[in-house]
Amino acid sequence: MKVTLIAGSNHQAATSTRLAEYIQHLVTSNGHQATLIDLHQTPVPFYSPDNAHGGHEALEKLKRAMLDADGIVLATPEYHSGISGVLKNALDHLGQDHFNNKAVLSVSSSGGAVAVSSLTQLQTIVRNLHGINCPEWISIGGDQRKSFQTGIAYSDIHPDVDKRVRRVVNSFLDLTALLSVRQEVVRQ
């Protein structure tokens, strides 16, 4: 299976990006392909319905990775009870053909206890794009974010946080596999 992860922060040391990198590691450790699009490293232009930005290298890479994906992970920091503007901008460039009937895992990092508002917004966007929301999501906040600071080894992630992330990623991969088989049957 192919999984595309979008790290939607414009902050170099974002814990949401580090969490997305760890999820990428877990996906590849399970024998699947994983492509991480880090919007801080490869920004896309501001969305405008008047300009398709054809030929913009980072945008074309994002669109190709999303079309090729069997499953999608969207990771965002929570800013003012919402998703990052960087991620929202990238999602505005995408359409139903990028999400239709694909499993989508929503992931967020918040300075507070949990990031429910941003995760709820992500799931609403996914529904509007005809993606299939994973019934679980990952929210890290407060001290949990320390496990995903720059320089922290995967082996040093707090055991409770690691157990939860692994369980949710495995659930997401199971849903992705189920939907992928279903899509193959429909194509035949």
Automatic annotation (TrEMBL):
Gene3D superfamilies in UniProt: 3.40.50.360
InterPro entries, per database record: Flavoprotein-like_sf, FMN_Rdtase-like_dom, NAD(P)H-dep_reductase
Pfam families assigned to the protein according to its UniProt record, in alphabetical order: FMN_red (PF03358)
Source species, domain of life: Bacteria
Chain ranges of the NADPH-dependent FMN reductase-like domain: 1-141
SUPFAM superfamilies in UniProt: Flavoproteins (SSF52218)
Protein family (similarity comment): Belongs to the azoreductase type 2 family.
Name this protein carries in UniProt: NAD(P)H-dependent FMN reductase
